[in-house]
Amino acid sequence: MTCEVAVANRLAIALAADSAVTTTESGKTTYASGANKIFQLANDAPVAIMINNASTLTGIPWELIIKLYRKQLKDRTFPTLQAYWEDFLTYLNEPAHGLLTAELRSNSGGTAIALAAAQIVRDVVSKRQALSSPATPDPDLAQNWADGLAEVEALLGALPVSPALEVAEQAPLLATHRADLTKQVGEYLATDDAHLVPHIDVGRLLEIAAESAFKRPVLVATGIVIAGYGEDDFLPGFIGKSVYGFVGSRVMWKDGHSESVNNATQPSLISGFAQVAMVETFALGASPEVWGAVADAFAKHAADAARAACTASGVVAVDPAVVTASVEAQAQLFQDNWTSATIRAHLHPLFASIASLNVEELAELAETLVLLESLKEKVTARTQSVGGPIDVAVITKSEGLVWIKRKLYFDPHINPRYFNRLQRS
């Protein structure tokens, strides 16, 4: 996991990211630090890219992919941040890619189908209790499985294929990996649901799983944030994307959260990515857990108060449905009232203050918010999922990307040739 923050006003956008890396293998979680998560996307343009969650694409580090993209981009620029994303996506989907080979793409698609098949089995079994018990008679097992699989198939039939993918690749991809997938799914079922094996047509399951892989993301996502300015932009912003890996020859992705500064309604912005509890607490005056707890507490205690009032008034029989309906009718008004008060007290003054910060103060605020999240993880969860050195960069329209803090894995004083190479390039 990670914590990343973007803070911007009319002058600049500041980016900050921790360095923690969390790895889980065979149920064991390990932590490390030193990962780079902020990169300059173009050599000659005020635009950067941040990554969070998965650090690789089909096993290839995003850092390597981004740096190779930047090298081939040379001095090309684009009018908007969206145009940078579209060009980056074209680079990822390039069929003759030397780094992201056809074999890697195909294997990623096979993995997606395998994960979709396992997910379908889990979904069907979890919704039909009879399927969980080996003591269930075989006819009932067969009928429940057939009914559950039919429900999944009907649900998928109503979903469109991801616009990022090519539906024509679905059948060839399954054909390429059918033998291996049949073996993998058979082993999975024999381990976790051996009593269902006689009732599951693996071939049909794989057909449905292939359809699911092209419609619903199953691979681990990488969060991508492209921040700064396009050539036609005079105020900063960012666009967010979620990239799930290759399914067929193309990468599956979805739009994420995007914001930009504008003179009319939003002179500043503050946004967190991945673990954002402290960012939201700082901005809204209360953590996400508190917001949920307040809503739950109102539902419980308002209902108790309504029943107590009815009893005190001599109403013998209180209709629970009437009490529930009354509480629900007032819950939204209550939520709106206290939310509005919190926003007026915390969010609006904060945004007004950020709008007046200088560039150095923007960077300091972004770094501090990441540091707060790291401290919270350390003293409450006792994990190291957020931590390590914090990288901070500021992007302005004129100066481009400027590093305020940046870790290096080597001592710069004894590596002058590295900087000479950078200068020559």
Would you kindly provide a written description of the structure presented here, covering whatever features stand out?
With 425 residues, the protein is α+β, with helices and mostly antiparallel strands. Helix content is 49%, strand content 20%. The protein has helices at 62-73, 81-93, 102-127, 138-157, 170-192, 202-213, 277-284, 288-312, 320-355, 359-381, 416-424, and strands at residues 3-9, 13-17, 20-25, 28-33, 38-40, 47-53, 56-57, 60-61, 222-228, 237-247, 250-255, 259-260, 268-274, 391-396, 400-405. It is globular and about 75 Å long.
Question: Outline of this structure?
Answer:
The chain has helices at 62-73, 81-93, 102-127, 138-157, 170-192, 202-213, 277-284, 288-312, 320-355, 359-381, 416-424; strands at 3-9, 13-17, 20-25, 28-33, 38-40, 47-53, 56-57, 60-61, 222-228, 237-247, 250-255, 259-260, 268-274, 391-396, 400-405. The chain is an alpha+beta fold.
Characteristic key phrases:
globular; six-stranded antiparallel sheet; 49% helix; 425 residues; alpha+beta
Topology (SSEs and partners):
Elements: E1 3-9, E2 13-17, E3 20-25, E4 28-33, E5 38-40, E6 47-53, E7 56-57, E8 60-61, H1 62-73, H2 81-93, H3 102-127, H4 138-157, H5 170-192, H6 202-213, E9 222-228, E10 237-247, E11 250-255, E12 259-260, E13 268-274, H7 277-284, H8 288-312, H9 320-355, H10 359-381, E14 391-396, E15 400-405, H11 416-424
Antiparallel strand pairs: 1-2, 1-13, 2-14, 3-4, 5-6, 6-9, 7-8, 9-10, 10-11, 10-12, 14-15
Helix pairs in contact: 3-4, 3-5, 3-6, 4-6, 5-6, 7-10, 8-9
